[in-house]
Specification:
By secondary structure, the chain is mainly α. 86% of the residues lie in helices and 0% in strands.
Length: 443
């Protein structure tokens, strides 16, 4: 039998339980990275810039599934800890209903207004058609993207992280193979990149539906249920911090693109795309860990096991801080090779990208601590604190930094902005952890 949510977690158990979700998120990050590699090298840097320009909006639409998944899994995990399995299954089913309804609605809105959105983001006439084509194909299948985010959280709550990992690996490998086929062999250009990602997302988002629809050995199963708006509202409010993080990150990404067009032109946007692909990989490791630990925290909170909450908090902070230091060193030494893989065909762009990656890498040291702190309060069903950390960290601190630092440091100020924002957010995270210790008894 696998590791149970109710167990006492040592470092070894945390590693084994969270490894599948870390690997799952790493595979998910392959979608945009592989798209970027093939588009940049086989279609051109204008198309590459177009993908990077429209991507933040696509992430905003898709991450509503992340909100429902994280907020809903915290509620379901707490309910399981209270030994109410039938109720937990009803809540789980409601989250799927909500994702399907909201996914279709957002798809329709995105497809209709994609051209206007692209122009609002600053797309040039050379980029606009690629932005619209890629955006409409991807957003037309937004429901599958949202479902994939949803099940990434619920596979862990169901005590089946290995199945979630398997589904994501199959989806990721499909995306890689189809990118090579559609772009390098069939020469479908930017449309090929979009369709490769869509098919991968359908594998990762739709196939799990069939698993949970039938009898299975996990803690969760889809069943008939009515829609209870208070429950859905509670889950969405609790997961709002994760949605806030992703929306804020995407909005700040849009702001970055505006600043980069101003200070470095099309090369700046392309360089930022490479930086984001690297960030996707490193951030995926932290996100995977928080997805893995979230249901554990929720379960023990629901069961009143405060000693285990203390154990999870201390071990997790040590793990994510140590991982952040390792990522700083790794990213610094890989800045040159990674830049060469994506933009080695353009010497000026290559130098801009190498410099950007070397500076941006400093943010990884504290990034994981802030992500975990926000996720920890989500798992405790305190969406307000989690949202406050996310809002200040991403939208407020990064906006101020990306607007202010370039005035002092020029282009380098844009690359330093995220590190400054993460340091400020670390102070906020620490303050909340200390002030809430008596309420949740974890210190």
């Amino acid at each position: 039998m696998g590791i149970q949510l109710s167990e006492h977690f040592t470092y070894k158990k945390l590693f084994h339980f969270c490894l599948p979700t870390v690997a799952m998120m790493l595979c998910t990050s392959l979608y945009s990275i592989v798209d970027g590699y093939f588009v940049s090298n086989y279609v051109g840097k204008t198309a590459f810039a177009a993908v990077n320009l429209i991507m933040p909006v696509l992430m905003i639409f898709g991450c509503f599934g992340f909100m429902i998944g994280t907020g809903g899994s915290a509620l379901v995990g707490k309910t399981l800890g209270e030994k109410k399995r039938e109720t937990a299954n009803r809540y789980f089913t409601m989250m799927i209903y909500l994702t399907l309804i909201l996914g279709v609605l957002l798809s329709v809105i995105g497809v209709i207004f994609m051209r206007q959105i692209a122009y609002m983001l600053g797309a040039t006439e050379a980029m606009i058609e690629d932005c619209v084509l890629y955006g409409r194909i991807m957003n037309g299948w937004n429901t599958a993207f949202m479902l994939q985010y949803l099940f990434q959280s619920f596979f862990v709550t169901a005590q089946k992280p290995q199945l979630g990992f398997l589904a994501t690996v199959v989806a990721g490998l499909s995306n890689v193979i189809l990118d090579a086929l559609f772009i390098a062999v069939f020469h479908w250009g930017i449309a090929g990149a979009a369709w490769a990602s869509v098919i991968g997302q359908c594998i990762g988002g739709v196939l799990p539906l069939f698993y949970f629809l039938r009898e299975n050995s996990s803690l969760l199963r889809i069943q008939k249920t009515d829609i209870e708006l208070p429950i859905l509202s509670k889950a969405c409010l609790n997961g709002a911090s994760e949605l806030m993080t992703n929306i804020s990150t995407s909005l700040v990404g849009i702001l970055y693109n505006f600043q980069l067009i101003k200070y470095a032109g099309e090369n700046g946007v392309a360089a930022y795309g490479v930086v984001m692909y690297t960030q996707f990989v490193f951030a995926a490791a932290f996100l995977g860990y928080t997805i893995g630990t979230g249901p554990i925290v929720s379960y023990h909170y629901g069961a009143g096991n405060y000693g285990e909450l203390k154990n999870l908090l201390k071990k997790s902070i040590f793990i994510v801080f140590g991982a952040g230091l390792a990522m700083l060193v790794l990213a610094y030494f890989l800045a040159g090779p990674l830049s060469d893989i994506f933009v080695g065909y353009d010497e000026e762009l290559l130098q801009i990208t190498k410099n950007a990656l070397s500076i941006y890498a400093c943010s990884f040291v504290v990034y994981g601590v802030n992500v975990f702190a926000s996720s920890f309060f989500t798992a405790l069903n305190n969406g307000g604190v989690s949202a406050a950390i996310s809002f200040l960290r991403t939208l407020v601190f990064q906006t101020i930094a990306v607007l202010g630092l370039p005035l002092l440091l020029g282009l380098d100020g844009i690359w330093w902005a995220v590190t400054v924002a993460e340091i400020l957010a670390l102070m906020v995270s620490a303050a909340f952890i200390v002030t809430k210790r008596k309420q949740y008894h974890y210190l």
